[in-house]
Amino acid sequence: MKKYPLFILIAVSVVLVSIPGLIISITDRSFSYPAAAVLIHTIKDGDAERILHPGKAKAPDLEDVPAVIPEEAKALMEAAAKDRDGAEADDEKNEGMKVKETAGEEKESEEESEESGEEEEEEHDRHEDEDSDEDEDHDEDDDQDDGEHEDDEDDGWKEFTTVDNDYFEDACYIGDSRVQGLGLYSGLPGTNYGITSMQIYRFFDKKVVETPLGKVTLAEALAGDQKFGKIYLGFGLNELGWGNDGTFAEHYYNLIDYIKAVQPDAIIYVMGLLHVTEAEERKSSVFTNSAIDHRNEEIRQIAEDEHVYYLDLNEVFTDENGRLPAEDSFDGIHIKANAMYKWADYLKTHAIEPD
After folding, report:
1. Do 195 and 46 share a structural domain?
2. What DSSP letter does each residue of 135-201 carry, written as one string?
3. Element (DSSP H or E) covering residue 116
């Protein structure tokens, strides 16, 4: 015992330092970072109260989230959610009405056909004479109808185009530490609200944005005077160890509805999760590429439901084995500065022109 006093002191100190970070990780249901790193980030973010009283900070229930949302925004969010949830039911109802109307028209047509059969026979020869002209007109009408049908299928969706850096002057990037890295190393202009260890359920309550009057939440920052033309969202990795698919989706729907309410002119992009490297996948039971692929399908569906644009970053960040290339990451998860150009180039070639 006397031979190793320094070693014992160091060991005890490490354990004592890690305990608060471990408690915070358990409270947040997030195990993205070592306990010591969580403690350092907590102190850096000015959340010392969480170290002294970790039990006070817990993941909010879904019904508690809207409590900090401005009333005028809540009304718009509820309308957006109602439209989204009722869209499928409306489509089914409309389809049923179309079927009923078609059946009625067919029945009426049969009755009229019986009454006017002789007249149709008399006009048959005249119709045959006009067939060639009608065929030409019919072909032209078909082409026009096909074009109109394609427009209907688009349903307001625009095609991606290529832009330069000026496009991002009024952009805002919101998400976790990967999004933070995009702001640091991509060279793209705009406002970056990428926050280390950020999770989607803390969007409305965690004060992380510095202002002259002190820190505010991301929700409060977006509701301010600054208006954005494009908003890029990057959430989902830190939440892999927390909650379930339904809970995560509900928070993401709330987030997008809120942004639509407070930033109505912004084009919203939802960025899919980047894969992790083979080495990271081997050592983690949470951050696996199969779990990431599953979550990306969920995020893609959320984007479709909300009628916002999904961006599949793995198109440029995945090797032949479906993993993040080791040379593109310094820790298996985050992108190196010298590889960030791939992300920037992808955003430049997957842009939507404003109306």
Report:
1. no
2. HHHHHHHHHHHHHHHHHHHHTT----B---GGGGTTEEEEESHHHHHHHHHS---SEEEE-TT--GG
3. none
Cα(278)–Cα(289) distance, rounded to whole angstroms?
A: 9
Provide the token pair at 27: 């409270």
Cα four-point dihedral sign 198, 200, 206, 211: positive
Structure tokens at 63: 């019904």
Number of domains in the chain: 2
Asked if the structure places residue 82 within a domain, the reply is no
- The tens digit of pLDDT for each residue in 223-253 reads 999 999 999 999 999 998 776 788 899 999 9
CATH classification of the domain holding 329: 3.40.50.1110
Question: What angle do helix axes 177-185 and 340-349 make, rounded to 10 degrees?
Answer: 90
Task: Report yes or no: 295 and 273 within 8 Å, Cβ to Cβ.
Answer: yes
Contact (Cβ atoms closer than 8 angstroms) between residue 252 and residue 201: no
Question: Domain range for residue 49?
Answer: 5-58
Q: Which position has the higher pLDDT, 27 or 209?
A: 209
Whether 31 and 174 share a structural domain: no
**Could you write out the DSSP letters of every residue in 202-229?**
GTTT-EEEEETTEEEEHHHHHTSS---S
* pLDDT tens profile 338-351: 999 999 999 999 99
Report the distance separating Cα 124 and Cα 120, nearest Å: 6
Q: Which of 57-66, 240-249, 290-299 has the lowest mean pLDDT?
A: 57-66
Judge whether residue 120 has pLDDT over 60: no
Point out the domain boundary residue: 15, 32, 58: 58
Q: Give the predicted TM-score (pTM) of the model.
A: 0.68
**70-83: buried (b, 16+ CB within 10 Å) or exposed (e) per residue?**
eeebeebbeebbee
The answer to whether position 152 is within a domain reads: no
